[in-house]
């Protein structure tokens, strides 16, 4: 099993460890400390050594920041974790603060006093974020101080070692573009702006050099930095012991390996022969920026040049994603048919269901990891958007309730992410009405045609419209980008109220509206979609895009109120189910095929 279900954290941690941290801060001459859930590489998936926020506070969400002052402390979470933070954190010691309504920088300005010295780890904060924090400290006549050693590391006596998993190549037939060509693309992209660029995100490095690793859970990433010059020289900053001989043979000839401990000397000695550096200040650690400034480099602010190129999948990457979704869809059908058989017995719980689903994926013979810890939420636990089941929170799937399962797999040819909400027993009218309104939003995105240059924010309203009409909504984005055997959450594209990046051909996104009735149940339906060119309608004047649906898995017909669906929406659902049966049925056992035939039968207006 990839996923474990033990309680990894609890509110008791804060009661013991916050006083220890305050003692350490006093030793270091600090009156406060800012700790984000982050590592040096800016990723969401952290190795065990970097899970400092969970160790200190008990909070295990995928995003958050804590600020600890002498007499107060706050933990910043977004709408996904409003409920979870109350269960995992001692709120008498740590006040939950909603982000982005209040940012850490804003809170800091309002809660520190003249003369305070607030510490931060410059490897865990981007240059842009550090600048915002410093400005607000200055306004309060306080000082923001970089620490040479993270004070949490000083009190974490059994902190795990840093990972050193071997780096492996990702074959050309799955990438469609070799590393030399990618390096040249980046070189050309920066040539008129700067002499070199520093690439900090591990998934950008993995994409650039066609490498994968196993340094973090749930994503096939090596923890490494990269540098590319305008003359197409490249440097990989990682421990040489992570590079097996066979991998080295397949690396580009214009690539040099640099040990992390030599990075400052690399900049000082100007080994890259670069006077100016293109730096994404929203991604690059403040520590790296400080090194460059000490070397008298000229910094040119810009975006990570890998991001847009990485997000526009090649035909080979798209083909791999389709293959992965066929495999994953068959595994989902095996799981759902099993669930329908055993759920009526009243013996199935969230952990048993999550284990069974992982087993179904493992039986494909291709699963490398799950793409995130399965969200297996029965009844009220389904209303916790990023719920993680543990032995303490585990619930049975009860009669006449809803079960929400959000899961995915990492396969060598693609990454999957799918959510289905399942009726256990007989759903009531409210469940069916809310489910159908969520479905209408998902179908609206699926059917959308939009001009080139359209952003995610412009599409987001389509997914919420049916819910808004009855005064409902959900506190998360409608869709995030997804990598090609990389991270299940990939930027810069997304569908959300803040989605400012135009969607491009080859982008892969999730399509996942939802609705959550706190303390009762949750509903979410999620497919992955790929942006593709659409035929210009007769008489049309604009080039348009549309979505190709990648995910193949039935949507629970028992929860659909066909009276709330328009004809076009009903046709989409029936056509989708017809496609699901046609593409998956040959990979199933007879009993599973019969279940799928029933689950994909056409629906009609009542």
TrEMBL record:
Residues 17-148 form the Creatinase N-terminal domain. PROSITE patterns: PROLINE_PEPTIDASE. Residues 545-603 form the Peptidase M24 C-terminal domain. CDD domains: APP. The keyword Metal-binding applies. InterPro entries: Creatin/AminoP/Spt16_N, Creatinase/aminopeptidase-like, Creatinase_N, Pept_M24, Pept_M24B, Peptidase_M24_C, Peptidase_M24B_aminopep-P_CS, X-Pro_aminopeptidase_P. GO terms for cellular component: cytoplasm. GO terms for molecular function: metal ion binding; metalloaminopeptidase activity. Pfam families: Creatinase_N (PF01321), Creatinase_N_2 (PF16189), Peptidase_M24 (PF00557), Peptidase_M24_C (PF16188). It comes from the Bacteria. One of its GO terms (biological process) is proteolysis. Residues 320-532 form the Peptidase M24 domain. Keywords: Aminopeptidase, Hydrolase, Metal-binding, Metalloprotease, Protease. Belongs to the peptidase M24B family. This is Xaa-Pro aminopeptidase. It comes from Cohaesibacter gelatinilyticus.
């Amino acid at each position: 099993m990839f996923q474990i279900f033990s309680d990894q954290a609890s509110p008791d941690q804060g009661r013991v460890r916050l006083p220890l941290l305050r003692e350490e801060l006093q030793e270091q001459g600090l009156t406060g400390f800012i700790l984000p859930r982050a590592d040096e590489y800016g990723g969401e998936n952290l190795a065990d050594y970097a899970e400092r926020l969970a160790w200190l506070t008990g909070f295990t969400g995928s995003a958050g920041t804590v600020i600890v002052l002498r007499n107060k402390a706050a933990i910043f979470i977004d709408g996904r974790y409003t409920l979870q933070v109350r269960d995992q954190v001692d709120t008498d010691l740590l006040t939950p603060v909603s982000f982005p309504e209040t940012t850490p920088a804003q809170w800091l300005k309002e809660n520190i006093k003249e003369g305070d010295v607030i510490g931060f780890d410059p490897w865990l904060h981007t240059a842009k974020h550090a600048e915002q924090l410093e400005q607000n400290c200055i306004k309060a006549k306080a000082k923001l101080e970089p620490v040479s050693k993270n004070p949490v590391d000083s009190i974490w006596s059994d902190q795990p070692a840093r990972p050193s998993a071997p780096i492996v190549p990702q074959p050309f037939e799955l990438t469609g573009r070799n590393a030399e060509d990618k390096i040249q693309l980046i070189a050309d992209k920066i040539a008129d702006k700067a002499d070199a660029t520093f690439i900090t995100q591990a998934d950008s490095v993995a994409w650039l050099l066609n490498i994968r690793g196993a340094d973090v859970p749930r994503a096939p990433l090596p923890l490494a930095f990269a540098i590319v010059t305008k003359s197409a020289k490249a440097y990989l900053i990682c421990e040489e012991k992570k590079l097996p001989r066979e991998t080295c043979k397949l690396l580009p000839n214009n690539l040099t390996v640099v040990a992390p401990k030599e990075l400052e000397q690399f900049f000082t000695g100007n080994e890259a022969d670069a006077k100016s550096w293109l730096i994404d200040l929203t991604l690059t650690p403040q520590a790296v920026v400080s090194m460059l400034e000490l070397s008298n480099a000229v910094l040119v602010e810009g975006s990570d040049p890998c991001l847009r190129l990485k997000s526009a999948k090649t035909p080979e990457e798209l083909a791999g994603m389709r293959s992965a979704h066929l495999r994953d869809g068959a595994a989902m059908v095996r799981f759902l048919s099993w669930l329908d058989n055993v759920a009526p017995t009243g013996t199935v719980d969230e952990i048993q269901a999550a284990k069974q689903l992982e087993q179904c994926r493992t039986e494909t013979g291709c699963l490398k990891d799950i793409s995130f810890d399965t969200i297996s939420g029965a009844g009220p636990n389904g209303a916790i958007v990023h719920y993680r089941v543990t032995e303490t929170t585990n619930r049975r799937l009860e009669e006449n309730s809803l079960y929400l399962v959000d899961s995915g797999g990492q396969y060598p040819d693609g990454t999957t992410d799918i959510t289905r909400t399942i009726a256990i027993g007989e759903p009531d009218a409210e469940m069916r009405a809310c489910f159908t309104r969520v479905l209408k939003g998902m179908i609206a995105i699926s059917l959308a045609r939009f001009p080139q240059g359209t952003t995610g924010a412009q599409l987001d309203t389509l997914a919420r419209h049916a819910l808004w009409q009855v005064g409902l909504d959900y506190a998360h984005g409608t869709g995030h980008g997804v990598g090609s055997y990389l991270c299940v959450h990939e930027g810069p594209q997304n569908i959300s109220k803040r989605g400012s990046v135009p969607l491009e051909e080859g982008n892969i996104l999730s399509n996942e509206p939802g609705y959550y009735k706190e303390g009762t149940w949750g509903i979410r339906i999620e497919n992955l979609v790929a942006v593709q060119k659409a035929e210009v309608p007769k008489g049309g004047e604009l080039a348009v895009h549309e979505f190709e649906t990648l995910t193949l898995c039935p949507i629970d017909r028992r929860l659909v109120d066909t009276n709330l669906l328009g004809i076009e929406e009903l046709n989409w659902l029936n056509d989708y189910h017809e496609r699901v049966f046609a593409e998956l049925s040959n990979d199933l056992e007879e009993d599973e095929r019969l279940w799928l035939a029933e689950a994909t039968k056409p629906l009609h207006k009542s």
